[in-house]
Every structure is written in structure tokens, then in C-alpha cells.
Design a protein that fits this description.
150 residues; alpha/beta; Hypothetical Protein Ychn, Chain: A; 16% strand
Length: 150
């Protein structure tokens, strides 16, 4: 029985390694922008699902083959606002940043809602703030980024 389990585990690991190799052979370098502008919903479900999409994208293409930005404006700012107290969101954001993902925040939203990025948002720096979220989306698309709205 033990030999069977070991053989099954080895087969699963071989299949997983093969799937990763096929994905890396299939996909070329990509530039992608994820657009986040919806509220998180019950328990930040939308934000968690969106960040899971980002991680799945990285897993398929490989971080070394991907330039990925997350642009937040309007209600989407809740991703980094809720992360101030939500350690699960903090962990996800930190992990994605560690894989090269940029998180960009709309200055219009900050100004219009009276949000102080330094104290009210998780891990947002001056360099992360763009003048306009929607203009940034257009700017990135003009540079060849593929637009995704989860």
C-alpha cells in the first residue's frame, strides 16, 4: 500500500511539473493590467478572488515573463484600505508585490474621498499613486498592456 501511495504521489508530481513546463512553453512575455473598481463585498470576497486571479496568472505565465499592474480607483481602493486591518489581504498583497506586481492607486479617488494614503491604506507609497485610475488604464493599454477586469 505504501509503495502504491508513493508511486501515485510521484505520478502527480510529474504531471504537475509537466503542466507548468507546458504553460511556460505556451505563453510568451505578457504585459497585463487588472482593473479593480468594485467594493469587496461580504468578507472582501471580490478582492480575494481578484488577487487569486492575479496569482493564477503568475503561476501560469511565470513572474519572470510577466509585467503586471493592479490599478485601483473608486470603490476598488477598498482592497488596500481593508488590508490595513485584514492580515489575509496583507499577506496576499505582500506576496504579489514580492513577485513584481505593481499596485497603483488613483489620486482622484484619494482626493475626492479625503483618504490619507500613508495612514489609511496598506503599503501604499507616493510612487504608487497615479493621477487618474481610468487614465492610467488607458495609458497602460496604449503601451501594450492587456486589460482584465475580474
Amino acid at each position: 500500500m505504501r509503495a502504491f501511495l508513493l508511486a501515485a504521489m510521484a505520478a502527480m508530481m510529474t504531471f504537475a511539473a509537466s503542466a507548468v513546463a507546458q504553460a511556460q512553453d505556451r505563453y510568451q512575455t505578457q504585459r497585463v493590467v487588472y482593473h479593480i473598481n468594485s467594493p469587496g463585498g461580504e468578507g472582501d470576497g471580490y478582492y480575494r478572488a481578484s488577487m487569486r486571479n492575479v496569482q493564477n496568472h503568475i503561476n501560469a505565465v511565470g513572474a519572470e515573463n510577466l509585467e503586471l499592474a493592479v490599478v485601483m480607483h473608486g470603490n476598488g481602493i477598498g482592497l488596500v484600505a481593508n488590508a490595513v486591518e485584514n492580515t489575509e489581504l496583507q499577506t496576499v498583497i505582500a506576496s504579489l508585490k514580492g513577485q513584481g506586481v505593481s499596485f497603483l492607486v488613483c489620486a482622484n479617488t484619494l482626493s475626492g474621498r479625503g483618504i490619507d494614503y500613508a495612514t489609511q491604506l496598506y503599503d501604499v507609497w507616493e510612487a504608487d499613486i497615479v493621477p487618474s485610475g481610468v487614465a492610467e488604464l488607458s495609458h497602460l493599454q496604449a503601451q501594450g498592456y492587456t486589460y482584465i477586469h475580474p
